[in-house]
Write a structure and sequence with these properties.
By secondary structure, the protein is of the alpha/beta class. The chain has two domains: 4-58 and 319-422, Aspartate Aminotransferase, domain 1 (Alpha-Beta Complex); 73-317, Aspartate Aminotransferase, domain 2. Helices cover 38% and strands 17% of the residues. The strands form three sheets. The chain has a seven-stranded mixed sheet, with helices on both faces. The model has no long low-confidence stretch (mean pLDDT 98). It binds 4'-deoxy-4'-aminopyridoxal-5'-phosphate. GO terms for molecular function: (S)-3-amino-2-methylpropionate transaminase activity; 4-aminobutyrate:2-oxoglutarate transaminase activity.
């Protein structure tokens, strides 16, 4: 029988080194918020495939919808011969996206593709080249999205040159000394130093930075950006690849913004484990590129569209948005309680069920503790809980557990986390 060690050795020999692996574990099978490895060990999954499993592994409705789709057709290429599930996913996205204006959508496959397409559309609409992204932001691994990404190690190292006309302003992060005013001033500095605002097509911002460390964009920051956007005719793009599909207590996190974004990039949990992404937003903006300008061979796969429709149905049937809010409250309460006993936990934060803790040496916010973060994550895995770290300083532990997980499972996972901290002493 296969062992994790034997498979890891084969992986090391056969798979590119550049493809990372957070845990030396190989899965055999999975269900909802648990999985079992090839050696038969059970794990609680607080990583959710990096925010892809808001409805859990093998949600019965998703699997049923996919099986039904497999009996009909699996691929025609939507640009050749179209199919209803694609249209229906767009209709659902249009209905759910915030903003008091007519909306349209298109579907793609990955988060990076959704972001790239949002930028292409913004440039086509504004006829301007410039894009302003933010420090600590993560937007993907393709060349343009790497250019937008505001975190060098490990994503950008060795991969330049990156595309021009991309500028980085400061993302507000009061915990690390960047106020909302600092952040908005840094945009104005870009207008002075780098590019005139009349050449900027869009701001792209995550409502909660994902890979960057689960820092929430404050509402005043979003309003400030919108004021600048209105003044200069710049579009506001929300990268909701990680925040979307119900993670933050609303379908899109930007529903909680004081102003609606012009475009939203969505992916990950949208199709419950199948590759599907999309751009949704203002119809006049989305329609700027001419016919043939957008698309992709696999974009909007019918199998993934069937899965997405089942995910959206599951959210309605199982009231998963309410669950996301309640789960977030439960997690924050438990982690704040943990923080009173564990000095290293210097911050507990989140939006809905997108929750994280940040670790510092003795809780001193000037001394981020990446080493402890790595050790706690590894210890938790040894004890049967799979976690992910993130953050500019590598000192954040994030929770992306399926919203379909029971409170009992959450509590079991949280107890393992507390035990893992205790084992560090
Ligand atoms: N944007 C954000 C905010 C993300 O979190 C990610 C993935 N972590 C991406 C874009 C890229 O998505 P993908 O890996 O599907 O290309």
């Amino acid at each position: 029988p296969a062992t994790n060690a034997a498979l890891f050795a084969r992986r090391q020999a056969a798979v590119a080194r550049g493809v990372g692996q957070a845990h030396e574990i190989f899965v055999k099978n999975a269900l909802n918020a648990e999985f079992w490895d090839v050696e038969g060990r059970r794990f609680i999954d607080f990583a959710g495939g990096i925010a892809v499993l808001n409805t859990g592994h093998l949600h019965p409705k998703v699997i049923e919808a996919v099986k039904a789709q497999l009996n009909l057709y699996t691929h025609t290429c939507f640009q050749v011969v179209a199919y209803e599930p694609y249209v229906e996913v767009c209709e659902r996205l249009n209905a759910m996206a915030p903003g008091d204006f007519a909306k349209k959508s298109l579907l793609l496959t990955t988060g990076a593709e959704a972001v790239e397409n949002a930028i292409k559309i913004a440039r086509a609409y504004t006829k301007r080249p410039g894009v302003i992204a933010f420090t600590g932001g993560y937007h993907g691994r393709t060349n343009l999205t790497l250019g937008l990404t505001g975190k060098v190690v490990p994503y950008k190292v060795g991969f330049g040159p990156f595309p021009g006309e991309v500028f980085h302003a400061l993302f507000p992060n009061p915990l690390h000394g960047v106020s909302v005013t600092d952040a908005l001033n840094s945009v104005e500095l870009i207008f002075k130093n780098d590019v005139e605002p009349e050449r900027v097509a869009a701001f792209i911002v995550e409502p909660v930075q994902g890979e960057g460390g689960f820092y929430v964009a404050p509402p005043e920051f979003v309003s400030g950006l919108k004021t600048l956007a209105n003044r200069y005719g710049i579009l506001l793009i929300a990268d909701e690849v990680q925040t979307g599909a119900g993670r933050t207590g609303t379908w899109f996190a930007s529903e909680q913004w004081p102003v609606a974004p012009d475009l939203i990039a969505t992916a990950k949990s949208l199709a419950g484990g199948f590759p599907l992404s999309g751009v949704v937003g203002r119809a006049d903006v989305i329609d700027a590129p001419a016919a043939g300008g957008l698309g992709g061979t696999y974009a909007g796969s019918p199998v993934a569209c069937a899965a997405a429709l089942a995910v959206i149905q599951a959210f309605e049937d199982e009231k998963l948005l309410t669950r996301s809010q309640d789960m977030g409250a439960l997690l924050v309460r438990a982690l704040k309680d943990m923080a009173t006993k564990i000095p290293a936990i210097g911050d507990v934060r989140g939006l809905g069920a997108m929750v994280a803790i940040e670790l510092f040496e003795n809780g001193d916010v000037h001394r981020p503790d990446a080493a402890l973060t790595r050790k706690v994550v590894a210890e938790a895995a040894r004890r049967g809980l799979v976690l992910l770290s993130c953050g500019t300083y590598g000192n954040v532990i994030r929770i992306l557990v399926p919203l379909t997980a029971s409170d009992a499972l959450l509590e079991e996972g949280l107890a393992i986390l507390a035990d893992s901290f205790a084992a560090m002493a």
